[in-house]
Amino acid sequence: MIWRDLWLQRIQLAWCVRPVVWLSGVRRVGKTTLARMLPDAVYLNCDLPSTARALADPELFLSSQRRGTLVALDEVHRLADPSLTLKIAADEYPHLNILATGSSTLAATGKFRDSLTGRKRAIHLCPVLWEECGEPFGVPDFDHRLLHGGLPEALLAETKSAHTFAEWIDSFYARDILELFKVRNRQGFLALFRLLLRWSGGQIDYSRLSRLTELSRPTVKSYVEALQIAHAIHLVRPFRGGGGGEIVSRPKCYAFDTGFVTFEKGWNQIREDDRGVLWEHLVLDSLRFRHLDDDIFYWRDKAGREVDFVVRRGEGRVDTFECKIDPDAVGAAPVKAFRRRYPVGRDYVVVPVAKEPYGIRKGGREFTVCGTGGLPEG
Asked: What distance in Å separates the CA atoms of residue 304 and residue 320, rounded to the nearest whole number?
């Protein structure tokens, strides 16, 4: 078992702001395990009929809990009226700390008639971050993490099982997509999902996806939105400042986990050329852990110069992040082109191994080299 201290700390901090924490993430990412790690928490599995009976009268249940009690409601959307339960908890029992888990955002199911605005803090649980790997968790090496992905069961397995990944995709469609979004076209939906896995890290092209899947363009867009809500993909928008010569419309699409990218591509080992784009996925997860999704972009101009990630920091400051296996491979030209437009901010090179951040100079610019654990906080 991987003890996920970073996320436990994030939950505790969230409770300092709101009485309800909504913990979402794809199935098998570790939400239940994380909920059970909370010290002295009252854990309730909402899949069980006994839990439904216990929460049939939320006031009676909540009033019986001592001040300061941690209550974990796992798969809370299984309750008949989950939003009412959480609303009562937030409004009438703010002295309790409530953790509610689910695979998707609150908007994904019609059962949530109240979005709990002002009552909750949302946390998206990513697959195991690269900085969570290593000792004492027993992840053998970097290529193992890239190939197996970050779902704990797959990550800790000695060998990669194609059956495990195929079964997950079937379960994801049946339990999340069909149940929550009523998508009946299984073949078309999964064809689209598999294309997005294979092309992960590239710009999304709705017209091409429509042609290849034989789905209409509006249908492709609606399925992509469902995949976003279910945390199976993440779109990174291009950064723009209003000037000419920048790519402004096409987002890049990243799959939620490198294990599924390598599974769909049919890889059973990581080659030298494969590491770069897979490393971008791990860096993106670590950036999303520290910053709001709305503040994370990529940048490309019409001359083809590109910066992997750009993070908006406020007051006109934007930081750049280049993802490299070898820090000496970073080129200064894209960052210099970016800085001519947006001069305020720091430039980072993110590498798999860097015990402490250090500085290098390339092309007259200074870069801070760091690992994902040394990324700046939001």
From this structure: 17
Question: What are the CA-CA distances from residue 164 to residues 155, 262, 309 (Å)?
Answer: 12, 13, 31
pLDDT band at 136 (very low <50, low <70, confident <90, very high): very low
Q: Reduce the DSSP state of residue 85 to 3 states and report it.
A: helix
Mean of pLDDT values over 65-76: 95
Render the burial of 192-209: b for 16+ CB within 10 Å, e for the rest: bbebbbebbbeebeeeeb
Helix or strand run (H / E) with residue 286: helix 275-290
Q: Which residues contact 275 (CB under 8 A, 6 or more apart)?
A: 142, 143, 146, 325
Query: What residue type is 133 in one-letter code?
Result: C
Give the pLDDT of residue 101: 94
Q: How far is CA 290 from CA 104, 252, 287, in A?
A: 20, 20, 5
* pLDDT for 109 beyond 90: no
Q: What angle do CA 109, 115, 117 make, to 5 degrees?
A: 165
The encoded tokens of residue 367 equal 């870069």
Q: Is the distance from CB of 34 to CB of 7 less than 8 angstroms?
A: yes
Measure the CA–CA gap between 149 and 200, rounded to whole angstroms.
Answer: 14
Model's pTM, two decimal places? 0.94
pLDDT, average across residues 110-115: 58
Place of tokens 């110069």: 305
Contact 262, 198 (CB under 8 A): no
Cβ proximity of 65 and 71 under 8 Å: yes
Give the Å distances, CA to CA, from 138 to 122, 129, 130, 134, 361: 30, 14, 12, 6, 35
SS3 content of the chain, % helix, strand, coil (to 5): 45, 20, 40
CA distance 327 to 342: 23
Do 226 and 210 meet the contact criterion of CB atoms below 8 Å apart? no
Angle between helices 217-229 and 206-213 (to 10 degrees): 100
Q: Can you spell out the DSSP letters for 222-254? A: HHHHHHHHTTSEEEEEEP--S-SSB--S--EEE
Contact 171, 103 (CB under 8 A): no
111 pLDDT band, cuts 50/70/90, is low
